[in-house]
Specification:
9 strands; seven-stranded mixed beta sheet
Length: 344
């Protein structure tokens, strides 16, 4: 049992080193996958675009670009307009035909599941994408896939959620709809710090069933549930704020815009009190080549779900289309940015 007040006094040190450690295997895998599929060999001959590499090697263009952006962020390639060129050390050590190739040292990385995943995604001409809930049985508390997904979400989002709540960004919110609320970690943290704020978690029925167990174990109050598919079903009405944490990155722009428009349609908008929207995401640099963690995270989202780690400019454009005010960063923690806007 987690005691009540568990999140109130805990210190929250910067977690970027932990995030880097977690995602590092995918960085190595991007390098070894680029070697196995012939990408480094091809680029050692001359600079090429991602589309050009994909055409020559019969690989998927978007996946090639994602992997090449990781190589850029790691310092093994440089972009020049729409072309990518290998650095001198990459040409010497990461190209199998080079007399200085370090293949023996890299050999163990060719056997990892991360490497095999990226190679498979690079070679898929028609990407096979998955969505959360593909293996979830409705309201089954014993479903291991649901528990693993909830556990992963809970682990990664607690610290940024706590930092965001402590920033004061959510003060004055009466009823918040947590869309894709997962384990309920954010709801437990917010209501512990703001007992008068009510949180409704909207997620698939199986995830809501799991979240209820964890909400109870954390002795969280003022939290309820709205089991639904947020693309197909009605959202909870009457909330003056909507929150999407690590949700928008799962989807391509078209679906992101649909979610933002649905949020604008549902958030309570009053003449003297416009509705609020908050998103918690890892932003990529405007040149899309960093930071390294965000670039690797983007590759994971693009290859697995067809999603993306977006830039702030991307969100400004999408928020405008969905009839929200220009979004602004209201809090930051580690690689995460808490972004907010008002309904227009």
């Amino acid at each position: 049992m987690i005691r009540k007040g568990h999140f109130s006094s805990v210190k929250v040190p910067d977690d970027r080193k932990i995030a880097d450690l977690w995602i590092a295997p995918f960085g190595w895998a991007a390098v070894t996958a680029a070697i196995e599929t012939g990408m480094t060999e091809e680029l050692s001959q001359s600079p090429k675009s991602a589309a050009g590499v994909a055409k020559i090697l019969k690989l998927h263009p978007e996946s090639v670009e994602s992997a090449l952006r990781v190589l850029v962020a790691m310092g093994f390639a440089r972009p020049s307009k729409n072309l990518f060129r290998l650095t001198e050390d990459a040409k010497a050590y990461l190209v199998p035909s080079s007399p200085l190739a370090r293949m023996a040292e890299l050999a163990k990385h060719f056997t990892t599941w991360e490497h095999k995943f990226i190679v498979r995604k690079l070679r898929e001409q028609e990407p096979i994408l998955r969505t959360f809930g593909d293996t979830w049985r409705e309201n089954d508390e014993e479903n291991q896939a649901v528990k693993e997904a909830a556990s992963g979400m809970d682990s990664i989002i607690k610290a940024p959620s706590l930092a965001g709540v402590r920033s004061g960004a959510f003060k004055g919110i009466e009823h918040l709809l947590d869309v894709g609320g997962g384990s309920g970690a954010f709801a437990a943290i917010l209501t512990e710090h703001q007992p008068k704020t009510r949180v409704t978690i909207l997620d698939l029925p199986a995830m809501c069933a799991q979240a209820k167990i964890w909400i109870q174990s954390r002795q969280a109050v003022n939290v309820d549930f709205h089991p639904a598919d947020f693309f197909k079903d009605e959202w909870k009405k009457g909330c003056d704020a909507i929150f999407l944490s690590n949700v928008l990155h799962d989807w391509p722009e078209k679906e992101v815009l649909n979610l933002l428009m649905q949020a604008r349609h549902n958030v309570l908008h009053q003449k003297n009190k416009p509705g609020r929207i908050f998103i918690l995401e890892v932003l990529r640099h405007e040149n899309r080549n960093g930071p390294l963690m965000a670039t690797i995270f983007h590759m994971q989202m693009q290859m697995g779900f067809g999603g993306a780690q977006y830039t702030m400019s991307d969100f400004k454009r999408l928020f405008k289309k969905a009839r929200f005010s220009p979004p602004r960063v209201v809090a930051q923690f580690g690689y995460y940015s808490l972004i907010s806007a008002k309904s227009l």
